[in-house]
Write a structure and sequence with these properties.
2 domains; 5-stranded antiparallel beta sheet; single chain; mainly beta
Length: about 130
């Protein structure tokens, strides 16, 4: 099932004294395959990888993403229903509205205006996800 150079999701879990469970996940590359364990490589923020052993049953193989996965991705157009996804370090906020304007200004990020709760809101176009045409 696992082969050298496969990519896997390596899972961990923390169980507290109250019984609460918190899962952790890392994307890793398989370095070696044992009978019950994998030797995997995890790249941290630094340039050097961290190599560790993990049970096979704590890993899930990631299938290859087709090279054309992003080809044909539809971008929102005026009058489409969109979701703005604003991500900061601590939270993710979303709001659904109708795309009313796309604003292209030379030398600037593309902006847009969406109709949200009966008011026009200025947003960054790249933060919009198409929901309905």
């Amino acid at each position: 099932m696992f082969e050298v150079d496969d990519h896997v999701v390596a899972t961990g879990i923390t169980i507290s004294d109250t019984g609460d469970r918190k899962r952790t996940f890392k994307i890793c590359q398989v370095v070696a395959v044992g009978a019950d364990e994998l030797l995997v490589k995890y790249y941290r923020w630094s340039s050097s990888p961290h190599i560790f052993r993990i049970p096979k049953n704590a890993c899930e193989k990631i299938s290859d993403i087709p090279l054309d996965a992003y080809v044909g991705l539809r971008r929102p157009k005026v009058n489409d229903v969109v979701m703005e996804v604003a991500i900061s370090y601590e939270k993710c906020q979303t709001r659904v509205g109708i795309l009313m304007e796309i604003i292209y200004e030379p030398g600037s990020q593309t902006k847009a205006k969406i109709l949200y709760n009966n008011s026009m809101e200025n947003v960054i176009y790249d933060n919009l996800m198409l929901l309905e045409k």
